[in-house]
């Protein structure tokens, strides 16, 4: 069921630029289990769209479809590539990988899954720049230092192994490593889960600053409505593989229309 503030009718951000990603009527199934049903959304430059919902609602599966790691059984995902808006299904694996490495960034929940734990912090940060052909040692080192500072890690830790970093620092390192290539579209998959509350708050503050400064489009998956409230301008609520309500963040969180969203909001957000 879609409410009156469903994706098709949800207020769009006022931007002269078109969407960087459009998903239309996506369906996906694992075996016989339909995991996504008729999911549509758009994300625009300079906005954070949060996809929220309880565990098992299909958030990660949706993010994987939008990132091109999974292929929908029905529907279409289109994204801006070098030649304009293109269906992901029309891209070769090589072009998709290129798009993922150059124009997109992906920050996953567990930084250890993304970082190379046996090379230094600077080595981790500059990897994408080297893949883009930059070879000058001095410039690369300067960029690594710059990004370490941007994510508020002491640049004296440049040559340290990630193994010696705390959980919050590892997540900051993953963010630096991802943002160095200045992605137009950033995928954030539960970026602050598993961190202490105080570490989480500092990281959210940092993400908010970086996202607004870099003017990226961001797709944020979270089960935490407080995280969505802090970072997102728009929110899509998922339940059982469907987007049941979507709209401006304040509107969805302060005046939820769908009974499930009302329950979700009342059970986690203090009045
Ligand atoms: N590889 C898989 N094989 C079979 N079923 C899967 C697989 N991955 C996910 N599922 C099922 O798809 C449904 C949606 O899972 P998904 O991980 O997308 O939800 P989620 O909202 O991201 O949950 P969580 O917040 O716990 O990660 C669940 O019923 C899950 O059991």
UniProtKB/TrEMBL annotation:
ABC transporter domain boundaries: 21-265
Transmembrane segments: none
Highest rank taxon of the organism: Bacteria
Protein name: Phosphonate C-P lyase system protein PhnK
GO BP of this protein: organic phosphonate catabolic process
Pfam families: ABC_tran
Natural source organism: Acidithiobacillus marinus
InterPro entries: AAA+_ATPase (IPR003593), ABC_transporter-like_ATP-bd (IPR003439), ABC_transporter-like_CS (IPR017871), P-loop_NTPase (IPR027417), PhnK (IPR012700)
């Amino acid at each position: 069921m879609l409410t009156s503030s469903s994706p098709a009718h949800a207020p769009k951000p006022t931007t002269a630029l078109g969407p960087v990603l459009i998903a239309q009527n996506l369906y996906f199934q694992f075996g016989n289990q339909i995991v996504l049903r008729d999911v549509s959304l758009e994300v625009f430059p300079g906005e954070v769209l949060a996809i929220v919902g309880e565990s098992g609602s299909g958030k990660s599966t949706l993010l994987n479809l939008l990132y091109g790691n999974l292929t929908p059984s029905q529907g279409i995902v289109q994204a801006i590539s070098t030649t304009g808006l293109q269906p992901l299904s029309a891209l070769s694996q090589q072009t998709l990988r290129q798009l993922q490495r150059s124009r997109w960034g992906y920050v996953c929940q567990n930084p250890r899954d993304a970082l190379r734990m046996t090379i230094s912090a600077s080595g981790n940060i500059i990897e994408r720049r080297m893949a883009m052909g930059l070879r000058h040692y001095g410039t690369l080192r300067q960029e690594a230092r710059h990004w370490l500072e941007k994510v508020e890690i002491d640049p004296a830790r440049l040559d340290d192994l990630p193994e010696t970093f705390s959980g919050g620092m590892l997540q900051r390192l993953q963010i630096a490593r991802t943002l160095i290539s200045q992605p137009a579209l950033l995928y954030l998959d539960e970026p602050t889960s598993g961190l202490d509350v105080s570490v989480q708050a500092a990281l959210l503050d940092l993400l908010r600053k970086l996202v607004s400064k870099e003017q990226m489009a961001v797709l944020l998956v979270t089960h935490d409505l407080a995280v969505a409230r802090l970072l997102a301008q728009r929110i899509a609520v998922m339940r059982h593989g469907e987007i049941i309500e979507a709209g401006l963040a304040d509107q969805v969180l302060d005046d939820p229309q769908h009974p499930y969203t009302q329950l979700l909001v009342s059970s986690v957000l203090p009045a």
